[in-house]
Amino acid sequence: MQPMTKTFVNIAILFLITLLGCKPVIVEDLNDNESIVANSLPFHTLKLSEISELTGEGQNWSIVGQVHSDFTQELHMETKEGTGILINRPTAENRGHIFSRFEHGDIELDLEFMIPKGSNSGIYFQSRYEIQLFDSWGKEKLTSKDCGSIYERWDDQKPEKEKGFEGHAPKKNVNKAPGLWQHLHIKFKAPKFDSLGNKITDAIFEEVSHNGILIHKKIEVTGPTRAAHILDQSELPKAALMLQGDHGPVAFKNIKYKLYGTDTLHTSNIEYQYFEVPMPITKLPNFDTLVPKLRGQTTNIDVNKLSQRRDGIAFKFSGKLNVAIEGDYLFDLLSDDGSALYIDEKQVINHDGKHDFESKKGIINLKKGSYPFQINYFNFTWGKGLWLKYEGPMQELRTLKGLYPYPLNNTKKTLLIDPSQTPEMIRGFVNYQNEKRTHAISVGDPKNVHYTYDLANGSLLKVWKGGFADVTEMWEGRGIDQLLIPQEMSVELNEHFVASPLKNNMTAFPPKISNDIQPTGYRMDNRKRPIFIFKYQNLTIEDQYQPNISSNGIQRTLSINGESNLFSRAAKADYIEKINEEFYSVGGYFYFKNLGESQPIIRKIDGFQEIIYPLQKDNKIVYSLFW
Predict the structure, then answer these.
(1) Structural contact between residues 182 and 210, judged by C-beta atoms closer than 8 angstroms
(2) Given this model, what pLDDT does residue 479 score?
(3) How do 358-366 and 327-336 pair as beta strands?
(4) What is the pLDDT of residue 263?
(5) Pairing mode, strands 34-36 and 27-29
(6) pLDDT value at position 15?
């Protein structure tokens, strides 16, 4: 197991950080008996159990438990009682904005939003700088008024055609269909002011990612974007986050944020000991048995500059770690080869052993004050490097000490694959739910609807439209990650096995595909699209995917050549809601439509809802998904 690729860390356990002093907080993986740590410090989450975490005027905002929308109807939204979702339903009388109770300067914001057909809203950082929310699904030429844009500024004193200025359209359209949940991740830098209140740097949208695709990077905003609510155009070091309420209906959930300020750690009095050790060396040496070749003081930890040779070297760095703010700190130690970090004589990270330039993390709680720290390091041969980063309260991830050993401006030559006349099929590793899947095949279609399929489990993993595959990580350099990455926004599907033997339609699916169902490869149809083949007893199951008729989604056809007790799972989600005569919303993440004679069964089991089909002879299962 790769510890840094697991994301199912129990946040409740992370809460114990504050109770454990300087001990690293680890989480035991019961499946692997291997300890893992969190990849980053947890976000603060708006609970959305009641409206009290926000403030505003008007009755248009409320907390609900579920929301769904019919993508064929303008401004349509229906809700169910509960908690966890913030929804705006403006009327002529009630159309107020809503504000966070906290004020922010630099902030990292992560949330999901749902916008119905034809609707319009926005997220205003510091109540002044807008990221536009809009139904821009399928639009080809984007402007600064489309979803994900940084909205334009406005000056009534300018000529008519120049009143709107400095708007920034997204780099590409990655919108889902209206009525589906979409994801935004934004890093915003507030304007900065000197001691007299004069602005010295503009606000910057450092990164804006929409549905996993970077659409803005390092965009400066010289002043507030256009908004009727801003009577005072002055810019401030801190102000509230605002969600727009005066235009159209919109819903939000999973609103998480981190507030950033100034550096919370710094080092002092760093000394080093440099050793040349006999080869081969595959782990950190016992420094007590070695005599250093050099001793000295340094302001930075540069193992290349401080070394007198490349191979068979080791270092011991020691100094003071000065903590300005009490709280949880995540340290990220990257090295080639082995290393270890100690704080207050306690080991925080053990990154020993011979390996390439890799990362290992540890979380501790530190009180305000000064602590001794120590970093041990060795290099066997070839490249060497040591780099320590940290994240803490009011501080985003940054370098504490050390240098990245390779050029940071070394851009990779992008390798893109797109199908032309016939489908492209690529065997390679893919990431699915933060796990590397090794038995995957990705299929790109000339109609620009693509998918990744797990050959071992008979499972559709992800689907996307537009450009097909970025294989840079498979081939650039040594292809270390070996990953195929979709060129566009992709939708991950909850794993559904091609088939599983069940007693009846209320039996739960097993966690893994049955050993009785054996994958035997695939054959090609007359359009060179693969048909995946599985054997069950003396029966043959065939599973095929292709673009649906309108090419805005994917169609599946599944068949078996005899009678069986097999069922196939087409979808799994927290809820499955019928939104009109033809379509179901699957958790609000994609739409489902049955097309064949075999009728789906929608059931609730183990806290989820599922769409399943019985596999029957001479009765093909046919359905489509779109997003």
Answers:
(1) yes
(2) 66
(3) antiparallel
(4) 86
(5) antiparallel
(6) 31
Q: What does pTM read for this prediction?
A: 0.89
The values of phi and psi at residue 17, to 5°, are -50, -45
What are the tens digits of pLDDT across the range 45-103? 999 999 988 998 779 999 999 999 999 999 999 999 999 999 999 999 999 999 999 99
Query: Which parts of 54-167 fold into alpha helices (H)?
Result: none
Same-fold call for 45-260 versus 263-403: yes
If you average pLDDT over every residue of the chain, what do you get?
Answer: 91
Residue 611 CB neighbour total at 10 angstroms: 21
- The verdict on domain 263-403 having CATH code 2.160.10.10 is no
Please provide residue 475's backbone torsions phi and psi, each rounded to the nearest 5 degrees.
Answer: -130, -25
- Before 191, cis peptide (omega within 30)? no
Q: In what order do the strands lie in the sheet with 239-243?
A: 54-56, 98-104, 239-243, 120-125, 129-134
Question: What is the CATH architecture assignment of 45-260?
Answer: Sandwich (2.60)
Does residue 225 sit in helix, strand or coil? coil
Strands (E), 69-196: 78-88, 98-104, 106-114, 120-125, 129-134, 153-154, 164-165, 181-189, 192-193
Q: Which runs of E-coded beta strand occur in 115-179? A: 120-125, 129-134, 153-154, 164-165
pLDDT of residue 486: 97
Contact assessment for residue 351 and residue 387, using Cβ atoms and an 8 Å cutoff: no
Parallel, antiparallel or unpaired: strands 199-201 and 203-210: unpaired
Q: What residues pair up with 6 in beta bridges, in sequence order?
A: none
Per domain, the residue ranges of the chain are 45-260, 263-403, 416-626
Which tokens is 69 given?
């929308």
Mean pLDDT of 110-136: 98
CA distance 511 to 112: 28
Determine the length of the chain.
627
Q: How far is CA 150 from CA 121, 221, 227, 402, in A?
A: 13, 9, 12, 36
Query: Running DSSP on this structure, what letter comes out for residue 175?
Result: P
Q: Which of 620, 563, 627, 567 is nearest to 591 (CA)?
A: 627
Question: Which among 461, 510, 473 has a CA at the least distance from the CA of 625?
Answer: 461
